[in-house]
Amino acid sequence: ELLSPTDNDNIYGDDYCVEGSSVIGIGNNVVISFSNMDFSNGANKITICGKTPNKTNTIQLRYNDDNGVQQTQLLEFPNCSEFTEISFELDEISGVKEISFVFLPGSNFDFGWFRFEK
Fold first, then answer.
1. pTM
2. CA dihedral 39, 40, 44, 47 (to 10 degrees)
3. Which of the two ends of the chain, N or C, has the fewest CB atoms closer than 10 A to its terminal CB?
4. Residue 47: what pLDDT?
């Protein structure tokens, strides 16, 4: 299922703009969080639709469980001038998690949608 970054449970940071179902102009220290995401069927891949003028735009994908255990994976989204779908392999995610997309200093990213897959 495609999920919009605007369906988040919390968004904060220095620089971003909500435009329709996208979050654009994502800059320094923006965090987009989703609570209680159920991965009972598991997931080991994420596809992100976005664009960036940067050579690469690093996105930290963080997931926390109910016990406070956090895992982080770095996703290197390549330069593209049009919204593009890029898939990333993940360590297996299972159970109920809080998912956060963390954009580091130097980010310049437009976020269209994402989808977890098995």
1. 0.95
2. -40
3. N
4. 98
